[in-house]
Amino acid sequence: MGRRSNMPYNFSTFTTKAKEVHDWLAKEFGGLRSGRAAPTVLDGILVESYGTKLPIKHVATVSIEDARTLRITPFDAGAAKDIEKAIASANLGLSVSADDKGVRAHFPELTSERRTTLMKVAKEKLESARITMRKVRDEVLQDIEAKEKEGGMGEDEKFRLKKEVDKLSEAENKKLQEAYERKEREITA
After folding, report:
1. Of 86, 106, 126, at which residue does a domain stop?
2. What is the pLDDT of residues 100-110, one digit of tens each?
3. The pTM is what?
4. Same structural domain for residues 20 and 69?
5. What 3 state SS string does the chain have?
């Protein structure tokens, strides 16, 4: 068998795609509101400003006032009503009120029913992330198979790389599980 030089396999595609999965899960978990004030909950909300729709963080600063309240301070005081309206219509279950400093978004105490629903949604998000991670792993394994068939590597190298992919996948899935467990603690706290 004409074996070429033993070039190290480039796992950068795997690493990049794995990071995308983690980023997606973090964003999804950020949107799951627990009983604690978290600015990320407002990330998906767009505010009408000068004829265009912009994310809240482009028209105001968002800070945590206390454990269950966010303070939204608009750069332009006239935008407070639009921000209040946008948050209220986003249907996040937050109570919103405007005052002379801007807008306050209050996170009500979670009911046990709401906690159960949030945990179910979080588990579904985790499962979606795991499925995507499995696809990423399978793509890399197929690439390794193809390279071996082309004569780019020997069988020993192929088996070594497959083991490496499995180890990397296990580590990534462990990180996803840990992110889920952090969210679970946040929701049940």
Report:
1. 106
2. 889 998 887 77
3. 0.65
4. no
5. CCCCCCCCCCCHHHHHHHHHHHHHHHHHHHCCCCCCCCHHHHCCCEEEECCEEEEHHHHEEEEEEECCEEEEEECCHHHHHHHHHHHHHCCCCCEEEEECCEEEEECCCCCHHHHHHHHHHHHHHHHHHHHHHHHHHHHHHHHHHHHHHCCCCCHHHHHHHHHHHHHHHHHHHHHHHHHHHHHHHHHHC
